[in-house]
Write a structure and sequence with these properties.
Length: 256
């Protein structure tokens, strides 16, 4: 019997919702990644846009495409990402986490927020890989996300792709939609954090030690999915690096 391929974990900066309509170096990097990875049996993904009191696991067999934004092109609201859910996998994950003392619940109604379907539209445009979404509990910090990710590491040997979807830098107040410039503070943070991820994971988990960190992450929810992916595989490599709208980091990382 042929052995299953071991998949990496990914951290994807999903950008603004309008990223779904773009064609650029970032979308090309996602497309190449989807083409080059061994075909996953399912995707388990944590998005910055599902923050809950306690951990929830989506068990919706046919999740709708949720256009959870406003003020963008009407064309965005016509996009659909009709991927199936995977209730059996969701239930199995819930049972395993309960056995380990991780309080969680199944959510059979959750749709796919744009932190899920926007990047997956480029990664797997045929929407033919089943999806299980995890929430981000509001009391989780980088350590908790890292520890949770470590519990999912075995999934990589089961040909399940684990993804954290957020943004390597995310300060909406600093965005300039039509600018070609790059924010120096955001650039410095990306370089600093990547160095820590490569050389000193405990220091990376203390990401809030970066000087003036509130200028790149006024809130934590867009960075925390990175540490979930990091828990699944501690060796980081950069798939893509860029900046959009002056200060919105669009980096994609692979963890093995």
């Amino acid at each position: 019997m042929q052995a299953l391929a071991t998949l990496p974990a990914l951290f994807i900066s999903h950008g603004a919702p309008s990223f779904a309509l773009e064609k650029n170096t970032t979308t090309n990097a996602l497309a190449r990644t989807g083409q080059n990875l061994p075909r996953p049996k399912a995707i388990v993904i944590m998005s910055a846009h599902w923050v809950t009191q306690t951990l929830e696991i989506a068990s919706n067999p046919a999740p709708q495409t949720w256009h959870d934004f406003s003020g963008f092109s009407p064309q965005l609201n016509r996009l659909e990402y009709p991927a199936n859910g995977h209730p059996e996998l969701a239930e199995w994950l819930s049972i395993q986490l309960n056995k380990m003392g991780i309080n969680n619940s199944l959510n059979p109604l959750r749709p796919l927020d744009h932190g899920v379907w926007v990047p997956l539209l480029h990664l797997y445009p045929e929407a033919d890989v089943p999806i299980v979404q995890l929430s981000l509990p509001k009391h989780y910090d980088a350590y908790a996300c890292y520890q949770l990710g470590a519990l999912f590491e075995q999934l990589r040997q089961e040909q399940i792709l684990v993804i954290g979807s957020g943004s390597i830098t995310h300060n909406l107040a600093a965005l300039h939609w039509d600018a070609s410039s790059e924010d120096a503070q955001a650039k410095a943070f990306k370089l600093w954090l990547l160095n820590k991820l490569k050389t000193d994971i405990p220091a990376a988990l203390e990401w809030q030690d970066f000087d003036n960190v509130e200028k790149v992450h006024p809130t934590a929810e867009h960075l925390l999915p990175l540490f979930f992916a990091l828990g699944c595989g501690q060796r980081v490599s950069v798939i893509h690096e860029s900046m959009a709208h002056h200060s919105l980091g669009m980096d994609i990382y692979r963890f093995d």
